[in-house]
């Protein structure tokens, strides 16, 4: 019961935080720019990813047998993969957006035109759908003969492969290929963007401005490190040393903890968000 209350509380904070961020950006005209459209997309992805996983997990705390059908399991796997992969690339797009805003502010409106940022956001979901379709398509072809207990709190790739009694060679190759691609390409984009951002921050004359910029960047980098670190721990370890119990702990970070923290991290000390929130409150007070 304590675990149920803990994760129920986390899920409620996640839903309120992410939906609140989407609504706030939608209602505030001065937040209608690429930076906040990316943030709104991140909030949508985090809300969906948490909703795909957490409600079913909460059921397991209050019932003796938490059953899921084969089709339900494959559906959960498919949508989890879409949003997990989409998050990798939306974080990379956000880092690139911040690089353009800080390092090339005069060219920002040209570089981040409607066509470009809408293409980036569309690309994020297209990659997620393609990779998820490949993984799920090859998972459906597997013959399972030990479908008694999935040693995990949701239907994920590696725990399902442990139940297979047909060859999983192609599936393991896909995990290695897509895992490497979907983790390292965004990470390299983020690292490169932040190297230029930090170099630009170091040129700021004001000590207060420099420390504030570093503080904001460090919180963003920490969120990215936790997300990608936990993903890499789960998917890029050799199967011989991969422990499902350790994998469960790692999965909690990228499916539950990070979606809860992202709205706070990306709006922390953000004046535009604070102003928008105050305006909404004032509008409701006058009504």
UniProtKB/TrEMBL annotation:
<dbReference type="GO" id="GO:0004984">
    <property type="term" value="F:olfactory receptor activity"/>
</dbReference>
<keyword id="KW-1003">Cell membrane</keyword>
<dbReference type="GO" id="GO:0005886">
    <property type="term" value="C:plasma membrane"/>
</dbReference>
<keyword id="KW-0675">Receptor</keyword>
<keyword id="KW-1133">Transmembrane helix</keyword>
<keyword id="KW-0812">Transmembrane</keyword>
<keyword id="KW-0297">G-protein coupled receptor</keyword>
<feature type="transmembrane region" description="Helical">
    <location>
        <begin position="214"/>
        <end position="237"/>
    </location>
</feature>
<feature type="transmembrane region" description="Helical">
    <location>
        <begin position="150"/>
        <end position="170"/>
    </location>
</feature>
<keyword id="KW-0716">Sensory transduction</keyword>
<dbReference type="GO" id="GO:0004930">
    <property type="term" value="F:G protein-coupled receptor activity"/>
</dbReference>
<protein>
    <recommendedName>
        <fullName>Olfactory receptor</fullName>
    </recommendedName>
</protein>
<comment type="similarity">
    <text>Belongs to the G-protein coupled receptor 1 family.</text>
</comment>
<dbReference type="InterPro" id="IPR017452">
    <property type="entry name" value="GPCR_Rhodpsn_7TM"/>
</dbReference>
<feature type="transmembrane region" description="Helical">
    <location>
        <begin position="176"/>
        <end position="202"/>
    </location>
</feature>
<dbReference type="Pfam" id="PF13853">
    <property type="entry name" value="7tm_4"/>
</dbReference>
<feature type="transmembrane region" description="Helical">
    <location>
        <begin position="116"/>
        <end position="138"/>
    </location>
</feature>
<feature type="transmembrane region" description="Helical">
    <location>
        <begin position="6"/>
        <end position="27"/>
    </location>
</feature>
<dbReference type="InterPro" id="IPR000276">
    <property type="entry name" value="GPCR_Rhodpsn"/>
</dbReference>
<feature type="domain" description="G-protein coupled receptors family 1 profile">
    <location>
        <begin position="17"/>
        <end position="266"/>
    </location>
</feature>
<dbReference type="InterPro" id="IPR000725">
    <property type="entry name" value="Olfact_rcpt"/>
</dbReference>
<keyword id="KW-0807">Transducer</keyword>
<feature type="transmembrane region" description="Helical">
    <location>
        <begin position="77"/>
        <end position="96"/>
    </location>
</feature>
<keyword id="KW-0472">Membrane</keyword>
<feature type="transmembrane region" description="Helical">
    <location>
        <begin position="249"/>
        <end position="268"/>
    </location>
</feature>
<keyword id="KW-0552">Olfaction</keyword>
